[in-house]
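Section 5.1 Outputs to date
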Amino acid sequence: MKIVILDSYGANPGDLSWDELKTMGSLTVYDRTRPEDTVARAAGAEVLLTNKVILGRKEIEQLPRLRYIGVLATGYNVVDVGAAHERGIIVTNVPAYSTESVAQMVFAHLLTVTNRTEHYAMQNRAGRWSRNPDFCYWDTPLTELAGKTFGIVGLGNIGRRVAEIAHAFGMQVKALTSKSQEDLPATIRKAGLAELLATVDILSLHCPLTDDTRNMMNAETLRLMKPTAILINTGRGPLVNEADVARALASGRLAAYCADVMGEEPPRAVNPLLQQPNAYITPHVAWATREARIRLLQVAIDNVRSFVGQHPQNVV
């Protein structure tokens, strides 16, 4: 059996091992694959693993031996699942491997805004504290989280974990969710979008990207938020209209925007958010802790093993 990994580098830049896959077939690993090279590299493969390389109908129809596609992520929009199913191709993903890591990044971003530890560390390396006449100094607002209202859009695995951590910080938690109030823990109060926008101090996005949620944060919805509010997006870049968010930051209508995802990745250098001092952007690394990547690889390998054993798991 021929196994091909089209873009290994993102999940495994060399510090982890794919060796278990070698026990199941002939393995070829590519760090990256350009769109024009996809079909040639995948030719003859029965098993394909992809992270961000697109396997659309055009590609799938040119791969007659293909029987399995494993997505090295939770989201599987890079695969035309309908085209795969038409040809009897199993498609799997890796659910819930990064819950703890992404939730951690939400609060890394939030604490960056409220405590500015990197700002002070950089100043003090340059001698700022050593020159100070007093025992301490601060030149940014410092904010306590206890007592604030934390809003969450979407209560999947990550949203629920974020809610738990927010509660542990002493915050009141509200959530926009399809779940009923009776199905929520006592620490979470169900709320509609209008209430969230008007009342929360922090709003964190954890919903899927759909036609209804695309650009849900735009000029109109941002105007409904407190000008002191912090918006956090570790879900999907296109949940927000980036130009509108940049304008809200520049005009003082939004205090801060924290994001680990962008509408285009990598973003163009002219993206207006990159010029805003109160936009805190990380390069889609919330999922990429070593611990999460170990889980990702192990589940991806187990998915292939289950397929070979004719008992596929995590099928989408």
